[in-house]
Amino acid sequence: MLFNKPKIGIALAGGGAKGLAQIGFLEILEKNGIPIDIISGTSIGAVIGAAYALEPDIKKLKATLRILMESDVFRDLKLDKFKSVEEDHWFNRIRNKLKMSLTFAEAATRPSLIPEMQVIRLFDELFGEKTFEDTEIPFAAVALDLISGEDVLFREGLIRDAVRASTAIPGIFPTVNMDGKMLVDGGVTANAPITAAKKLGADIIIGVIFGYEPSPPGKLESSMSVILRGDELAKLKLFRMLIEKADYVVEIDTGNTHWTDFGVYEECIEKGKEAAISHLDKLKRISRGSLLRRWFSFK
């Protein structure tokens, strides 16, 4: 470490559609010749990270994801049903309550709100038979095992299975069952995959996140809204603890983007570019090995 340039690890957090901003972040790094030695990802961060690790070319990444999001396979997920509308009218308030009631009823009777075959088709389309050995940049994805309660680090095998597990939002997407484990979205316990990057051998870890403050609480009038709020705050507290382990953090402000808002593709990418540009001088210093660990740690 004294004479060798440190290995730089990029830890890409989850955040649903907000994660599209990570494409813009990677684009600025690529444009400025800032090398990435290691990538770890959770949830959407695993999707972006795996695709880029396989082929580190931002133009190809953009093209691949745009084609995917415009495909019937992606549209068939019908993610918009999980988004509430603004309650500025009595009809919208009723609509939101009805939607929540129907969603709760489905959740009580089905293993997941989105059928398993639709999710399998999506990741087959994106990654095919590619394995971790096919990546040009070392990559790891994180999921949570509901049986043992332990985080699971994927570093080998089929990428499509690892990413499907890492993105399996509990109750919404189906669990991934393998090797006696019942796997769900790694964002439940490790939305900032800092430890994963460390285990891959990163000397300096840059976390790319989408905020660390709670969302507005809303009216909290239903039991479901109270449950969801408590779950959000618990995960946020753990997330803040994880972020402290990063050496440098770039926070991307995507505004009020909902996790299902994949239609704001270009806007999110621009937000990622803006964030990277605002940190560019320090990121360059990190890449040269001239910025020592913890000098600019996140506070």
Architecture overview:
This protein is an alpha/beta fold and 299 residues long. The model is unreliable at 85-99 and 292-299 (pLDDT under 50). Helix content is 44%, strand content 13%. It is globular and about 50 Å long. It has helices at residues 21-31, 44-54, 58-69, 72-75, 90-109, 116-127, 159-166, 187-190, 194-199, 223-243, 265-278, 280-287; strands at 8-12, 38-42, 139-145, 151-154, 176-178, 181-185, 204-209, 248-251.
What is this entry, summarized?
The chain has 299 residues and is α/β, with parallel strands linked by helices. It has twelve helices and eight strands. Residues 85-99 and 292-299 have low confidence and may be disordered.
The residue ranges in which pLDDT falls below 50 over 5 or more consecutive positions are 85-99, 292-299
Mean pLDDT: 85
Count of alpha/pi helices: 12
State the helical fraction.
40-55%
Q: Which range does the strand content fall in?
A: 5-15%
Number of β-strand runs? 8
Sheet with the most strands, sense and barrel status: 8 strands, mixed
State Rg. 19 Å
Classify the secondary structure makeup into a structural class: alpha/beta
What's the overall geometry? globular
Query: Would you list the SSEs in sequence order as H and E?
Result: EHEHHHHHEEHEEHHEHEHH
Q: What is the end-to-end distance?
A: 25 Å
